[in-house]
Amino acid sequence: EYSCEYGSLKFYALCGVGGVLSCGLTHTGVVPLDLVKCRMQVDPQKYKSIFNGFSVTVKEDGVRGLAKGWAPTFIGYSMQGLCKFGFYEVFKILYGNMLGEENAYLWRTSLYLAASASAEFFADIALAPMEAAKVRIQTQPGYANTLRQALPKMFGEEGIWAFYKGVAPLWMR
Question: What residue spans do the Solcar repeats cover (predicted)?
């Protein structure tokens, strides 16, 4: 009747795969819009509006330029989705067991919020390195054109901190 037992490793894995598909694919699909948005934030004189930003990007980089940052977006948001969807279920069951069946039901909204916040804490740690690389690729012309170029350069210049200095703002978001 069911594809797997609730709370089993297969259950958590399926939730994680759902997160990879829903977050990784959707965020990658809107990379062109995200690229223009980031560039508008960094250089509002050059990128005056969404439509102008698309036009300037295509003029300077061609249509392929609209895909800049797709790899760190796909990897980062896939990791975030894996953690967000998978850990949400882990924490929901963990906290529910700690409260007991009746209290878990009575306090279910608070339980769901606590499970969600706990999952997001770890999901943002998983996302932060790729988000940092994506922003560098998209907003610093000449810095790096690919993830393979960006990661070693960032690590060489700033060490591991280069990948996590944006995690606190992610948590606040």
Answer: 10-94, 107-173
